Amino acid sequence: MAVSETLITAPPNPTCEMQGLKRELLRLLEEDREFRLAVAGLIGYRDVLDRLEEHDRKFNELLGELREHRKLLEEHSRRLEEHSRHFVSIERRLEEHDRKFSELLEELREHRKLLEEHGKRLEEHDRHLVAIERRLEEHDRKFSELLEEIARLRREFNRLSMRVEVTIGSVGRRWGTDLERLVLEIFRETLEREGIKPGRVEKFRVRDADGRLTGVRGRVVDVDVLVRDDRVYVLEVKSRAEIEHVEALPEKARVVEKVLGRMVDRIYMVAVNVDREAYERARELGIRVVCGNVID
Known about the structure:
The protein has seven helices and five strands; from the N terminus they run αααααβββαβαβ. By secondary structure, the protein is of the alpha/beta class.
């Protein structure tokens, strides 16, 4: 029996075809961008890819900002370095201040010790002051007693002065010009302290015949004068001096100067009693007053 040859074609292998298709798809996805996008869109990843690209753009922008930030950080670092140097200088100055503060505190402690010592001394002084105050109170009491005694003596002196005035008036009626000598003797001690010796005082009496001395023709000037070395003293002696006696003295002194041809150094009013008004006027005119009592 003759055998006929029959060509039998093998059926296609689905597995092999599938693998080939996969390889082709993978190739296209790797090499063909449009195909890749089309496939991505078909499978729902188109939005994801767009967002990824947007993210890439934003990342690039962030990278740019980070670079700017890096520059700013570098500038800040430079400034911080400069500040650090300043801080080192400040720290050194603070250390110097600390040292000075320590010295001041030590000095203040010394001052406190001195103040405490002064406080103790002041307390001691207070005790002394209390004792002194007590003594002063005692002195005030004694001084008050002394003032009372002086007032009593003044009253007694006034009473005696009145008696002297009465006595001198009586003597004046009997002795006339000797009254002035008696008054000078009463105040001898005071006058001698002024450099005036009563025994050397002389009566000066002149009559202005033509009025050249006083401006009044026939006027008589009567005063006591002491000529001692190169000094001339004019004295008016009264039992009681009144203001008219005081005001007449400067004119009498000018007459003495004209007659003697010398300047008068001092003018004195010597009296047992002087009216208060006359006493104040004498002080105004620069006339020295020697008296036993000033009568108000």
